[in-house]
Design goal:
about 15% strand; 2 helices; 3 strands; about 90 residues; alpha+beta
């Protein structure tokens, strides 16, 4: 299998610009918090509340593609560190 080198920053910048310009107005009203798998080269995407489902559909349509992944309406896909739940008072 051949190795491909990409400029990660340029890849992320292209994806975020496309998301902001084209997808944000279309997706945020109805899909906030859902997972988006974006094919940066084609603009095709899959969105689903379940990250695994979105990934499987995206890979089925575009096998071998490098996807940009984000949560609609959020800055990050997930969190780093422990998740602390507050108990009701």
């Amino acid at each position: 299998m051949a190795s491909v080198t990409i400029d990660r920053e340029a890849f992320a910048r292209r994806a975020e610009e496309y998301y902001d310009r084209v997808l944000r107005p279309r997706l945020e009203p109805e899909h906030k918090g859902e997972y988006l798998y974006l094919d940066v080269d084609t603009g095709d995407y899959e969105v689903d509340p379940n990250k695994l489902v979105a990934m499987q559909r995206a890979r089925a349509k575009h096998p071998g593609t490098l996807f940009y992944i984000l949560r609609v309406g959020h800055r990050a896909v997930g969190r780093i560190g422990p998740h602390v739940r507050r108990r009701p008072s």
